[in-house]
Amino acid sequence: MSKTKEFLKRKDIEISLKRYGIDALGAMAQGLFCSLLIGTIINTIGTQFNIGFLTNPVATLTVGEASIPYTVGGIAMAMCGPAMAVAIGYALKCPPLVLFSMISVGFAANTLGGAGGPLSVLFIAIIASEIGKAVSKETKIDILVTPMVTIGVGVFLSWLIAPALGHAAMWVGDIIMWATELQPFLMGILVSVVVGVALTLPISSAAICAAFGLTGLAGGAAVAGCCAQMIGFAVISFRENRWGGLVSQGIGTSMLQMGNIVRNPRVWIAPTLASAITGPIATCVFKLKMNGAPVSSGMGTCGFVGQIGVYTGWVNDVAAGAKAAITAFDWTGLMLISFVLPAIFSLIIHAGVRKLGWVKDGDLKLD
């Protein structure tokens, strides 16, 4: 047992919830952001502003007798599997040969995982990375052995379990979205609170939404919850953190408050209750739907990615004939759910919390 522990330590293989559930998951979200999400945004910009370079194909892939054209954004979107896997490998501190081999692993896992590809990539990339690290530099022909083992394990697992993982992820996502359509009030509260809390915790709400393909009303509730956390913390901590804190939390991340939450969990009451209120308003009143990339559902106001995702969904729906036009009611709902209501509800609730003496000056101060 001691030899095994020494070997794992030497290889920097740490089997823990933090390494896999926080570091790897968070990195996967960054990989998604730098591929699928950025590609979607590029396509939307090209379409809306009639930029020929962004809307015309810049490359064509020939598969058999079929030709598949790719725009700039399309190329970025097609690389989401490799991007996620490499990001996970980086988070797991893979040596170069293992890290570069993750490109093939990510492509295989994401392709064979289908619509649930992100979840498949997460599991398979972690396993392939750790096995690759285990064999790395253990032989004199490392340049052959390490890539061969890493890619072999990753592609084999992709063939073996990626379709099942993908189906499972989509099944869970479909259940959540079906339940939200059936019970928009209750599920609006549940999805909004859970995803919002995940955004503030040191895990990735974006990766969770991507893994389960959360779109539609459930995606809209997720956007509401994330916005409530980010805008909520930004406004209730304004007296301590001023404009720098407003920007860093409001369009950065509410995760900055985790230290304060650990010291005094009651500072979390206002943003969380605000998300419980704005979630059902989003689903029942404004029928806010995320029909853009699922990863956008878990981004909130971070770089306004959540709002861009909703807008992209509107554009796609209009182009597909599923939506007649983008209305003033749509814009009003998006602005209220994203910015106005989270600020108002959080300030009101936080005032009550302070009056009860549960939170005092300095409790929300960022280091």
How would you describe the overall organization of this protein?
This protein is mainly α and 367 residues long. It has two domains: 2-169, no CATH class; 183-355, no CATH class. Helices cover 73% and strands 3% of the residues. It is built from 16 helices and two strands. Helix 5 packs across helix 6 and helix 11 crosses helix 16 (328-355). The two termini are 42 Å apart.
SSE map:
Blueprint (H helix, E strand, L loop, with lengths): L1 H9 L6 H32 L3 H4 L3 E5 L2 E5 L1 H7 L1 H12 L4 H18 L3 H19 L6 H41 L1 H17 L4 H8 L3 H21 L1 H13 L7 H6 L5 H17 L19 H16 L7 H28 L12
Antiparallel strand pairs: 1-2
Widest beta sheet: strand line-up: 1-2
The count of strands amounts to: 2
Profile the largest sheet.
2 strands, antiparallel
The chain-level mean pLDDT equals: 92
Roughly how much helix do the residues carry, as a percent range? over 70%
User: What separation lies between the terminal Cα atoms?
Assistant: 42 Å
Class derived from helix and strand content: mainly alpha
The helix count comes to 16
Rg value? 22 Å
Low-confidence stretches: none
Please give the domain count: 2
Which outline best applies? globular
Strand content: under 5%
Q: What is the element string, with H for helices and E for strands? A: HHHEEHHHHHHHHHHHHH
Characterize this entry briefly:
With 367 residues, this protein is an all-alpha fold. Helix content is 73%, strand content 3%. It has two domains: 2-169, no CATH class; 183-355, no CATH class.
What attributes does this structure have?
mainly alpha, globular, two-stranded antiparallel ribbon, 2 domains, 367 residues
